[in-house]
Amino acid sequence: MKGTPVSVESVREVGPDTVALELETPAGFDAVPGQFVLLRAVPGSDDQQDVDEDDVVMRHYTLSSPSVGDTFEITVGIDPDGDLSPWLADLDGGETVHVEGPFGTITYERDCDVVAIAGGPGVGPAVAIAEAAHESSHGAAVIYQDDDPAHVDRLEAIEAEGVDVRFVEEDAPDELADAIATSHDEGQVYAFGFEDFVRAAADAIDDAGGDPDDALIENFG
Prior knowledge:
By secondary structure, the protein is α/β, with parallel strands linked by helices. 23% of the residues lie in helices and 33% in strands. It has five helices and eleven strands; from the N terminus they run βββββαββαβαβαβαβ. The protein has helices at 85-89, 123-135, 152-160, 173-183, 195-207, and strands at 4-15, 18-24, 36-41, 57-62, 71-77, 96-103, 114-119, 140-145, 164-168, 188-193, 216-219. The chain is globular and about 55 Å long. Residues 1-109 form the FAD-binding FR-type domain.
């Protein structure tokens, strides 16, 4: 199989239908928040090395850990009808998957204040960037739209330490726009989520007098 084999160190639930996988860091893997990896696996197979490439399932996942050490984290939303995510969620740890990367030019280098805007699965990179900024003594704000939020423990922890965290319901576009209007000029803006969400975020920045072209936006499709 293509990619580098790595061990799944742990799998834990981080929200409704959402898990975080802690993966072994490959040699030479140097990633920062905002970047993503391509994960390859053959769900249901005990042998992830000598496989038919036609059986391999591939998905991109953005890092959700603020730094990379011996391990790094990705967050996986579980689609009950999906080919890969239910299998990943049921892993016990100790299994092997293959990764390629890191990829992506939307990065945070711990060099400025940040405003991280997240819709749905965008919370993974958003919380990682906010934590990295806070750890580096920079200002951080998080605006997170989801009716069933994930990583609430981490968000509440940084909120208790002074990070501005705002939860917005999915059917509240005006509340999202107001939150973005209030915070968009407080740091480098990052936005992560599906197309409709990031388009709404860009429009809100524009309506508030900001320049959406200055925002670092990752469209999940």
